[in-house]
Amino acid sequence: MTIWQWMYALSADMVLAAIPAVGFAMVFNVPVRALKYCALAGAIGHGCRFVLMHNAMPIEWASFFAAMLVGMTGIFWSRRLVAPPHVFTVAAVIPMVPGVYAFKTMIALVEMNQQGYSQALWQSMVTNGITAAFTIAALAIGLAMPGLMFYRRRPVI
């Protein structure tokens, strides 16, 4: 893969992640002036995950670091634009939800229900289910971490 092909794939990934981020932001009634920031945060987060995964990082860790980046970006924008950070971050993280892994888990479960137990179906269901669960947990923890780091200012006794 040449550098131009890689840059095209990265930019396509970022643009295609910005579209559902704006869609979910509109579902959550985000103000119109904040939609462009939601799109940008979704593109930045998905682009970060794309780069990390193409550098051999597992999807769980890549999603964690991308969600942390989205969380920090949301905190930065929330202070500058005087809005809660969740306005920018929640809709931006939703395009990173691992739908394919969850879908494969459910398909394996349905096939086991119809065809009976099979070692290959069980392995597919467990592997994809664990990957989906850990990726969703990584997104949740990664999104919460910047808020905990920047907003918890209690002195330690």
From TrEMBL:
It comes from the Bacteria. It comes from Photobacterium galatheae. It is a multi-pass membrane protein. Belongs to the ThrE exporter (TC 2.A.79) family. It holds the Pfam family ThrE_2. GO terms for cellular component: plasma membrane. The chain crosses the membrane at residues 6-27, 58-77, 89-110, 130-151. The lineage of its organism: Bacteria, Pseudomonadati, Pseudomonadota, Gammaproteobacteria, Vibrionales. Residues 13-148 form the Threonine/Serine exporter ThrE domain. Its main location: membrane. InterPro entries: ThrE_2, ThrE_Dicarb/AminoAcid_Exp. It is found in: Cell membrane. One of its GO terms (biological process) is succinate transport. This is Threonine/Serine exporter ThrE domain-containing protein. Keywords: Cell inner membrane, Cell membrane, Membrane, Transmembrane, Transmembrane helix.
